[in-house]
Fold:
Amino acid sequence: MQRALITIAALSLAIACGPSVTSAQAPPPPPSFASSGNAAFDAWRDDFAGRAVARGRDPAVLGRLLSGVAPDDRIVELDQRQPEFVSPVWDYVTNRVTERRINDGRALKAEFGSLLDQVEARYGVPTGIILGIWGLESNYGGAALNYDAAAALATLAFEGRRRAQFEGYLLALTEMVERGLASETQLRSSWAGALGQPQFMPDVYLTTAVDWDNDGHRDIWNNRGDVAASIGNYLADRGWRRGEPVFDEVRLPERFDYALADGTLRSVADWSERGVARIDGQRWGDEVRGLQAQLFLPAGAQGPALLLHHNFGVIRRYNNSDRYALVVALLARAFDRRGGLVADWPRAAGALNREEILELQTLLNGLGYDSGTPDGLFGSGTRRAVRAFQSAQNMPADGFPTQALLGQVRVRAGVIVEPPAPPRPLARAGVRELQRLLNRLGYNAGRADGRIGSRTRSAIRAFERARGMEPRGRATTTVLEAARDAAG
Structure:
């Protein structure tokens, strides 16, 4: 009788699943596509579709997802201008830790406090951290998703810089549709192909999204319980330690060796013995002294100094950027009405734009300091090269690129730099763009009408002061370029 039951169960499973494909059988043919108008893209797309079908993906779903898709140059441009790597750190932080984002997060906490408390109790991740990520990723669900996920992922896979990574995302997106987890019309995304309010990549959705209310759907698009729980589950799965801090702002002693800010983990007790103290003057508690932390100087020797704890690195797993993790932690403090950073940002020192970073990387490589392939993005390799150059020149080895540092590198490389062209006044279209950017950055320039009135001039002066520029209040090419950089 038991054997008969097993046979019936196996027969039922075979009927439900349909005919099986053995290893000896060839996979079904891949889908065929009309030309996109880009022969190189078509060659990649057809090859990818063939490999995807060979790995078990449904050719019909692949055909629907990739039909009519063409590479989008705007997506590649956005990928190369990510504000985590391009804009000055003080602009990145100031433009994201805003009163509106803080107030909206507090309002959401007041409305859904019981739900958020339950999520925190289950996953151990503080509500403020969940709200900080939620607010940054999608403005608590208010941000528009203007891209088709398949088109965005295909563009970035074809572009080639991270082809294997984005092809993996495309495979996961296809699986989502095959399994009925999301409809093709639902798959609107950011320019990077990130989905829903927590902005999960497709592979993360498959492994980490949560059906909080047990309604049979992991709805990270509309269900706030699913959204909050999915963020909490993501961080818990990546190693969040319940009850531990994210960072502590510190004060460094005189003649401190800034080369110690190289990412090396030391106990808080060890840092304390080196003269590193909490900026509020309070003693380190016993529960903190044994924690491992690294020293982080987000704006070099002249800016704030932070001891980063384990949970800071967990936030970085969500977005691989120190700046991003710092903003999340600062938002969490603000939701609880705790203060932000005490030390001021060194705006007057000046940060480098992408073209200047590209020049810095090229010159450092020529001088024997390996910054990697010059790309205009300030990453860990460039930071190491800058720190090595600073050490060789008996400068504070904080690894932070300033205008003065670039000048020193130019001198050592024997480069003569032409004086910059004087700023030119903007035409009406340029004034309109500047007004839109200033409004987006929180400076009230009024209606973007291309006319320079008192409100626009006041907004320009406020922006110039915040950037460490001379506050002239004039709509020039220099101000417009600075606003573009600040807006990312």
